[in-house]
């Protein structure tokens, strides 16, 4: 006999590793990755000690599927990110190395928390620029203070943006901020210089990190609440 649960975890890490690497290098992911690992998740079910319970567990964890698809359709992340969460739910449902509570949404919620990191980096970068008296809002004299503050959270002014989305727009000859949803599925990366942009960091990296945290720590939200309870 071999450890099927261990194999499922290893395959999940390999899948997310390959997807993250190709997302970083090419900013696109081959759909065959999801078909291959989705097929493997189905085959491995028949090697589990209790096939009925395994199918039941996968069914419960696939509750994340409609949520991921809805989030994708609203433009919060790309289609590949939604497929990654769906296949992950079938491939390694409830997988963790620690005695900690996890649920069908643990990887997703861990991912969302990790995705806040760029916000912190943006704020620090912009505050430092203002302290240095850099005119980061040059050309935005007619923009509201509220929009300027919001821009400092979601982006920064870049001289040579790469793999980022512009959050500027022109209304006549007046520069304004544009905070519409943007992802690589529907928006071209910015190629203009000296422009306000929001980082186009591949969301797959956050999903990979969210799953790793699930393995070694569990659910960030529940465990943090438990620690401070």
Question: What topology does this entry show?
Answer:
Elements: H1 4-26, H2 32-45, H3 51-61, H4 64-73, H5 79-91, H6 106-114, H7 117-131, H8 145-154, E1 156-158, E2 164-166, E3 168-171, E4 174-177, E5 195-199, H9 203-216, H10 220-228
Antiparallel strand pairs: 1-5, 2-5, 3-4
Helix pairs in contact: 1-2, 1-9, 2-5, 4-5, 6-9
Side-by-side strand order of the widest sheet = 1-5-2
Please describe the biggest sheet, giving its number of strands, its sense, and whether it closes into a barrel: 3 strands, antiparallel
Termini separation:
42 Å
Which residues form runs of ≥5 with pLDDT under 50?
A: none
Helical proportion?
A: 55-70%
Strand content: 5-15%
Question: Total number of β-strand segments?
Answer: 5
What structural category characterises the helix and strand content? mainly alpha
DSSP helical segment count: 10
Order of helices and strands: HHHHHHHHEEEEEHH
Rg, rounded, reads 21 Å
What count of structural domains?
Answer: 2
Shape: elongated
Overall average residue pLDDT: 92
